[in-house]
């Protein structure tokens, strides 16, 4: 995926503030934090309306992005970062929670629908395309008749938290594979 001048714009989705830190909806932020540790950088406020870390990830130029807006309004800060860094849509990688995958499952794809995910819908609308890469982290379906909107804003369960550090690391590895090896090779490795 990478050429000498190209940049991978890696977006972790979540909601800002301590109230949401451990929520299922914030898995994108958690993976972005792991990637920032790997780069050796700290997130800093950026004029795009996001927090960013610039550096090299697995030898490739990368910018990590965490929108400072709420999830449903992620598109504005992402579009601002895309414009600022002159990143074409095919170099944008969005890390997000996925209700339709069992907990801990990591799946990679390019484009497609948003499956009711308002953060993805906002990004697609703001950058004018759905043709960006997605790293989908399975959070499973809500139990019983719980509203999915309530479920994604709940913290991971105790049993899930026991596996979470490993799964965040695995998801970060999948992002690195996307950046260095491209979609098909990364899918072959992680699916």
Fourth CATH level, the homologous superfamily:
Peptidyl-tRNA hydrolase
Please tell me how large the radius of gyration is. 15 Å
| End-to-end distance | 19 Å
Average pLDDT figure? 94
The arrangement of helices and strands along the chain is EHEEEHEEHEHHH
Helix content: 25-40%
Question: Based on DSSP secondary structure assignment, what is the total number of beta strands?
Answer: 7
Which runs of at least 5 residues are low in confidence (pLDDT < 50)? none
Please identify the top-level CATH class.
Alpha Beta
The biggest beta sheet is recorded as: 7 strands, mixed
Explain the overall architecture:
By secondary structure, the protein is of the alpha/beta class. It has a single domain (8-190), classed as Peptidyl-tRNA hydrolase (Rossmann fold, 3-Layer(aba) Sandwich), CATH 3.40.50. The chain contains six helices and seven strands, in the order E-H-E-E-E-H-E-E-H-E-H-H-H. It has helices spanning 27-39, 75-84, 118-127, 148-152, 158-181, 183-190; strands at residues 8-12, 44-45, 50-57, 60-67, 92-98, 106-110, 133-138. A seven-stranded mixed beta sheet has the order 2-3-4-1-5-7-6. The longest helix has 24 residues, at 158-181. The chain is globular, with a radius of gyration of 15 Å. The mean pLDDT is 94.
